[in-house]
Amino acid sequence: MESQDKILRPIYLSKRTFLGLKDLVIAFYAQKCPFQCSYCSLPTKSHPEPLPVKKIKQQIDWSFEQYADELSSFQQLSVGNEGSILDRERFPKEAIVYLLEQARAISSLKVLSLETRPEYILPATLEDIFHLTHAEIIDVTVGFETQDDYLREVILNKTIRRKNFEAKIKLLGEMGVRLTSYVLLKPGPTMTEKEGINEAILTIEYLAGVCQKFGTDLVIYLNPVYVAKGTPLAKAFSLHQYKPVRIQSVVEVIAETRDLNVPIYTGLWSENNTDGYGDYTVHKDYQPETRNALKQFNKTQDFALLQLFYQSKLDDRQYQSQLILL
C-alpha cells in the first residue's frame, strides 16, 4: 500500500520537439494497464491497485511546477499513463478535468495528445475534452502496431480487432480528432530485416488508406523494436536469436512511404529497458550520424536530411546484388 502522505511522481516527464512543436510529455503513475501485450514491460512500473484522484492531481501539479517558467511556450501537451489515459477507472474524469484546467496555463497550446487504447475512444468522452481544452487540435495516440492480424493478435497479444479499430478511426474523422498510430518496425521474432521493412510499409499504407477513407488526419509514430526485459516476447526473441532492426531500415521505411504525405515521427529511445539483444545500436554498422539525422527529421519532416543515408543504403543493396550475380 502507498503511504497517504507520499507525493508520487510521474513515470516520465520531459520535453521534446514533435513535428516542429515544443511538446511537454507526461506519463502519469497510475494503476497498471489491464491488458497484457507480450512486448510491453511498462505495467511493471505502474501501481497494482487504483490510485486516489488526489495522488494523480499531485502528479499534475508537480509536473507543471517543473516547467513553470516555460509553460506558456509549449505548443503541444502529450499525456498518458502507460496504458489508456481515457480509461476512467485508471484515470478518473475528475483527474482529466483537473489536468485540462491546469493546462490552461499553456497559453500557446496547439495540440493536445492523449494516449489510449481504442476501447476508450467514446463520443461522450471526446465531447467532454472538446469542451475542456483550448487546444486547436485533439489527437489520440493508439498502439495499433501492425496491420498483420496474426502478428498483432497472436504474437503481440494486442487484442485490437481490425474492424473495431476502423470503426474508431471513422468516429475520429466524424468528430475532427487526429489519430497518431504507433507502428512497430520488425515486431516478429522470426522476421528478417526485409520482412520487417515490408510489414512497416504495409502498415503505414493501410493506416493512410483507412484514414483517407474516413477523412481522419493521421500521424505515424514509427518505433524500431527493442527487446524489453522480462517480457514474454523477449523469450521468443531469445529462442529465435532475434536481431534488432538496423537504423538504416528506419530511413528506408520513411523513404518508401513519403509519397503518402503522412508525417512520421520516429521513436529512437529504448527507455533503458533492453535485455541482452538490445536495440539498433548493437549492430557493427550502426551510424550515430543516421540517428542524429532522424532526430532532426522528427523536428522538421525534411527528407533532404535523410537522402544521403537512404542513397547509401540503395548503393549498398545494388553492390550486394552484383556480388550475387558474379
UniProtKB/TrEMBL annotation:
Protein name in UniProt: Putative Fe-S oxidoreductase
Keywords: Iron, Iron-sulfur, Metal-binding, S-adenosyl-L-methionine
Top-level lineage group: Bacteria
Organism placement in taxonomy: Bacteria, Bacillati, Cyanobacteriota, Cyanophyceae, Coleofasciculales
GO molecular function: catalytic activity; iron-sulfur cluster binding; metal ion binding
Organism: Allocoleopsis franciscana PCC 7113
Sequence ranges assigned to domain Elp3/MiaA/NifB-like radical SAM core in this UniProt record: 25-256
